[in-house]
Structures are given as C-alpha cells and as structure tokens.
Amino acid sequence: MDQYIVLVAAIAGIAGILASISILRRERRPPENPFAASTEGSRRCPSCGMGNGPNERQCSSCGANLG
Ligand SMILES: [Zn+2]
C-alpha cells in the first residue's frame, strides 16, 4: 500500500513539473508585433515593422526596401 502512495505521489510530481515547463514555454514565446494592429492594410517594413503606404517602395522609418 505504501508503494502505491509513493507511485501516485511521483506521478503527481512529474505531472506538476511537466505543467510548469509547458507554462514557462508559453511565457517565453515572443510577444506579438506591436505594429501589427496599427499597420493593417498597409505595407509593413520587414526590417523595423513600421507601417508604410501601399505605394511606398522604401520604409519611411529606416529606408529598407519593401519589395
Ligand atoms: Zn523600416
């Protein structure tokens, strides 16, 4: 009976560790680009994320080629 309790405790501990790891991995994910919401429908600079007009060929912020 004691062995069963130890086994259950070990499984619970492993499950808790795995849950903690999955939470930490989720928190480590990079945040969404803050420029994404404000530049919807425009050409977003691949270099700095600045939103540019649809006809712009160069980024107005950093001068990168927008393609
Ligand atoms: Zn740029």
Question: Would you kindly provide a written description of the structure presented here, covering whatever features stand out?
Answer:
- This protein has 67 residues and is mainly α.
- It has one domain (2-52).
- The protein is built from 1 helix and 2 strands, in the order H-E-E.
- It has one helix at 2-28; strands spanning 43-44, 51-52.
- The chain has a two-stranded antiparallel ribbon with strand order 1-2.
- The N and C termini lie far apart (70 Å).
- Residues 45, 47-48, 50, 59, 61-62, 64 line the site of zinc ion.
Give the helices and strands, then pairings.
Layout: H1 2-28, E1 43-44, E2 51-52
The structure holds zinc ion (ZN).
Residues 45, 47-48, 50, 59, 61-62, 64 line the site of zinc ion (ZN).
Task: Give the number of DSSP strands.
Answer: 2
Give the overall average pLDDT: 83
So what's the overall shape? Answer: rod-shaped
Computed structural class: mainly alpha
What is the first-to-last residue Cα distance?
70 Å
Count of individual helical segments: 1
**Helical proportion?**
40-55%
Low-pLDDT windows of residues: none
Catalogue the ligands. Answer: zinc ion
Strand content: 5-15%
Tally the structural domains: 1
Spatial arrangement of strands, main beta sheet: 1-2
Rg (CA only): 24 Å
Oligomer: single chain
